[in-house]
Amino acid sequence: MTKDELNDQPHNENSDNSEDKLINEVNGTQKNDPQAETKDTPSPKDKSQSYFSWYLLTAIAPSLLAFIILHLLYANQNVQHNFPSYREACMSGQFSSLKELHQFVREDITTVDGELARDDFLNTYYWKAKPVLMKGAAKHWPAYTHWTDEYLLSNLFDLSFYVDLRKHHSTSKPVRTKMNIGKFLRNYRDNDWYLDSMTSDDRFLDELIVPSYLNLTGLFEFTDENDFYQNFYLSSGNTNSPLHFDGFANLLTVLDGTKEWIIAEPDASLQLQMDQWVDFPNLSPLNVTNFSIADHPGLCNVTWKRAIVEPGDTLFVPLLHPHHVYSPPGRNMAVGMWFYLDSYNMLLEQAGFFEIDRRNISGSLALYQQHVGSRPKPCDITECSPLGAGSLRAHVSEQSEQYSRDSDVPPPAKFPIKQYNSETAYIPGIAFGTGLPGGSIDNVYLNTRAALDMGYKLIDTAVMYGNEEEIGRAVRDCKWMRSSVKVVTKIMWRNTGEADLHKEMVALIEGSLQRLDLEYIDILLLHNTDHIPNFEQLTVVWKAMESFVLSGKVLAIGLSNTEITYIMHVQSVASVPISIVQNIFTPFEHDRDVYNFCLEHEILFMAYGVSGDYYIKEGAAINPVLEEPLITDLSELYHTSKHAILYNWAAQREVILITRTTKLSHMKENLGYLDVFLNSDHMQDINDLHEED
What we know:
Blueprint: H1 3-8, H2 19-27, H3 36-40, H4 44-59, H5 61-82, H6 86-91, H7 98-101, E1 111-113, H8 118-126, E2 132-135, H9 142-146, H10 149-155, E3 160-164, E4 176-180, H11 181-187, E5 194-199, H12 202-205, E6 228-235, E7 239-240, E8 249-256, E9 259-264, E10 304-309, E11 314-317, E12 323-327, E13 332-339, H13 342-351, H14 361-374, H15 390-400, E14 414-417, E15 425-428, E16 430-433, H16 441-454, E17 458-460, H17 468-477, E18 486-491, H18 501-516, E19 521-527, H19 535-551, E20 554-560, H20 564-573, E21 580-584, H21 592-600, E22 604-608, H22 613-617, H23 629-637, H24 642-652, E23 655-659, H25 664-671, H26 680-687
């Protein structure tokens, strides 16, 4: 800047922009200040004060600095000391949910970097039932990189999973339904939905990598398909699990979001009131979202450990360890690998632990923990060999499948049926009914064949339907072996005037065998017992049916459209027991005495008319079952059809369903009757529709 340019700058008395002033400051003087030199020349006194100040700065300052640092450290320790311990926070009621409880848990689960070596995992953690968090152990999985919503929608769009229509566990069970993943992905961020479902689809499993320590020849050879399976979890976060334990060991891997775990030792089950279970033996009755310490004082005596599981991390959780899981808001995705080692069960049985006593959960878990600590050193890997699964899995695995289901045991897909002088056979829980009025013979064959090829393996027909020949032909032509398909047919006494009633009934049965042309009849029922005038004749009819069982031409016999008096009489005279009873069963109408008698005496109950088509067949203008507001509301709540709601209700009542339709789409839909699972409250709501007898 030139001198002329400086002169052109605006004048400011307080400005430091003058060139002379800048020069003077650099030189330690100010222009036109006669005292400047005097002021800057220190006197002897000034020098003495300067030396003293320098002494203070060099000698005292370090001590002062050290004092300040110590003071800060003490203050920090004091703050930590004042932060309440878990027990203090619990006793003073500073939390009323397990989510709030997490912040007071101080002890972390053991953490390691990466995937553990085989020996370390086996000897240090699995055999000692010790949880461990493996940081970044799954970051090499294809699923870790690939599984965005867009990728899942593009590559797995046709898969279906079970979905809870609520993300927080409480004292009531969540609505649970089966849903196509495409529908889930398009809606889950805006709904209170939680996908929690097992899967065995290869496209899904191919992008997961089973840890090397589970690929041990012999040692981890899974002797049953239920020894190892994968569970998929996906939500928009802010989820609360129940407080529970699992009957399998679990490797939980987070792929997106975070899961916060707290885990207790098995012997804490007494303090966690596991003995007071209501819905399922592995679920604590604690309402995890809102409770009072006054009602659960044992919580204050529990020692918890915590783990924050982040994307790519894998957490090993031993079996029978009570735990709670919270997922913060935001997309949250994880995969659980649940597995069971037979050799581990061997050691437990050798130590005296065999099973979970549902009447004494806490005692069983305490006994298990005692044996975990006292059992012998793990066998050498090369010496371990798979054994029978043992009773522990048999008693606990059925519990593990659903804590996360948060419901009662699902209805069976097949039922045991008593057969005379032979081993117990099984029949499916759903039948394809062929008693459709107005259908041509050709349509009966085509519909039955389509149903068989679609997966139906129980076919219901009758002499009065006039289609036994077509049913037999469809069974012979289908892809299934004869032994895989069960055929039910029904005969009915028509009072033809034949003097020999036994001979008449034998001819009727021989006629069915001839028309079906299937070598034997799986289940033969007496149709409309009230057509028979008296019990004496009923006895004759039953004995004729028994003769075909004794000859091997019929495997099981029963009654249809009957009442309790007929059933009790037949039972009193029968040499071959009643295997099955077929009656109407709708939410509005069914014979409670017959139904209850069958349950008590292990007689299978087979139902027609569950969805109300019976009323239309009888001439009603509308189907009152499908028009019932409750059924409509539940259909909307569970995101499924009215028929699915009704069929699941009946299945949970241990009823074998007979479905009737000519539409392929409905045939397929009806086979999914177990995809929906009504909770106990909704089951009771439908039960309450029943009219008084």
